[in-house]
């Protein structure tokens, strides 16, 4: 009987789902069939894998135990804002290197805000922004530019008023305006958390009084704080749209517990259409 011919892919792939409470935060395993067929000659036990995503040009070094990603995986997980329902596609680039494409619960590829890169030197846009005396060539909808321009100035330093822009949805983040961040202490809290390698979560109560946990992050090169993990879910649950005006009021602040209350003024569809029709 003739042996079947098979065509081996140049860059084989395998995929993994992030399921609720399945221990994915601690590590995931490479499928046994993938190890057998495509990692022949590679020592998995004790090896160090190099993982990359489209979030930045940096690589995450992750140790392996058997065929399971272990030490370093948690950093990859949190840095890329992985959540239950995400679908990860691993592309083998040779050796023990993998490019990882992340799809979220919408079944679309996850879009990361350039600002979330942990290391400025890995992000050409941020490198350009950090160069003194040079004209900054950055995307028009980059959050740090457009959002600051569209953040209303208010007399009460404990109140932040923001009109929802397309960048809030595209980059899945909300930058806290520099004056509000400094006066409210949010920048200080976010900076302290980053320096101690901890996550600082704040509570935002929506118009119905329901509390939402959002991660407060810090960007050293700009000295600003921004909302990261939890922001997308907050947008969807409150059905926020481009043009809506949100008011965030800081009602309580403590080293381990910060509470804000949010109210929203919905933008009329007719006026919003007229604005983008000009």
Structure description:
- It is elongated and about 70 Å long.
- It starts with 12 loop residues before the first strand and ends with a helix.
- 27% of the residues are buried.
- Helices cover 24% and strands 28% of the residues.
- It folds into 2 domains: 91 residues, Beta Barrel (At1g16640 B3 domain); 145 residues, DNA-binding pseudobarrel domain (At1g16640 B3 domain).
- The protein is an alpha+beta fold.
- InterPro entries: B3_DNA-bd, DNA-bd_pseudobarrel_sf, REM_fam.
- GO terms for molecular function: DNA binding.
- It comes from Thalictrum thalictroides.
- Its main location: nucleus.
In short:
The chain is an alpha+beta fold.
* The named CATH superfamily of the largest domain: DNA-binding pseudobarrel domain
The main sheet orders its strands as 7-8-13-14-10-11-12-9
Uncertain residue ranges? 114-139, 141-157, 270-278
- The CATH class of the largest domain is Mainly Beta
What does the secondary structure layout of this molecule look like, with pairings?
Layout lengths: L12 E5 L14 H7 L9 E5 L7 E6 L2 E2 L3 H7 L7 E6 L4 E7 L20 H7 L12 H7 L1 E2 L6 E5 L2 H5 L3 E2 L2 H7 L1 H10 L4 E6 L5 E9 L4 E4 L3 H7 L7 E10 L2 E9 L3 H9 L1
Parallel strand pairs: 2-6, 10-14
Antiparallel strand pairs: 1-5, 2-3, 3-4, 5-6, 7-8, 8-13, 9-12, 10-11, 11-12, 13-14
